[in-house]
Amino acid sequence: MIVPQSGHRITFKISPSNVLGDFGSVGFIFDGANVDMKFANDLGGIRIQTGDGAFLQHGKDEVLILEVTADGMAYLLPRNPSSATVKLPPFNNAPRTTPNFRWIRLQLVWNDVNRQIELGFATGVSFEQVHDVTVSTEEPEKPETTTTTSITDENDENREAAGTSTPIFSKISNANGQVFYSQIWFIVLMTIVATVIFLAFVLAVIVTIRFCYRRRLKSRRVTTTTTTTPPPVQVAQNESNFYQFENPKDPKEKLKNRGIQFNQYLAIVPAYKHEIRAFKHATPSNKERMYNTFMRRSQEEV
Questions:
Q1: Which of 41, 120, 215, 237 could bridge to 11 as Cys pair (CB 3.0-4.6 Å)?
Q2: How much is the pTM?
C-alpha cells in the first residue's frame, strides 16, 4: 500500500443494527505488528476497543475515522479524552516511492464479522495490486462459510501523484447471518426479576400497614370502652328523669352497644338505631334523660 508520508486516514462505515452484542473485529497486520479493532453494539451505540481491551471509541456515529500519523500513532475521530492510542509501525522510514509517498505492507483480517463494514482509504492512498482477504467462520457440524473481500486500486496510473487517488472501499458481510440475542434476553430477564421483587415489596408494605392499622383501631376501641365512660348521673328514681323512647319499627331489631357523645365523653350504651338518631338531635335536657334511660338499661342487663 502506498501512503502519503505525512499521514493518512482510514474510514469505517458500519451498517446500522439494533442487535446487541459483539459483531466481529478487523485485524491490521503490518510488518512486525498486529492490531485488532473489536466492534460491539450496546444500548449507547457502537463500542470499539483493541484486541487486549483498551477503549478506543463509543457513540452513536456509524461512520468513524482512524487518524494515522507518520510516526505510527493512530486514534479514532472524534477523539474521546479517555480513548487509547493505537501504536502502528512508523512509516516515515518506510521505502520511498516518490518524494512524498511511502510503501508499506498491510494485510486485513476479518474475524467473525456479521455486519457490513466498509473501509475507506483517504485520497492519496493507493495499492500496487489486488489483495484477497478471506474470512472463514467454522461451527461444529456445519459446513464452512467463506467470504472473500477484494481491495483493488482504482487509480493505478496516477497513484504517484498526491491528491489524485480516489477513496477505495472494501465491503464485508457474514453469510451465516449469526445474531446475538444474549444481552437482550439478559436485560429482559433482569427487568422481570426486578419488577417481581418490587411488587412483592409493595404488597408486604400494604399488608403490614393494614395489620398495624387494625391492631391500633382495636386497641383504641378497647381503651375507649374501659376508660372514657362518663360517671353515672346521680338522680332519684323518678320517671320524669327518664325518657320514654318509641318502640322500634322492626320488632326483630335487637339492642346493641352503640357509641354516643355525652358531656364530652364517649359512652357505650345499649340502644336501638332510632334512639341514637333521636339522641343526636335532642335538647340538652332530653339528652340527660335519654342518657339516664340508657344507663338504667345497662344496670338491668347486669
A1: 120
A2: 0.40
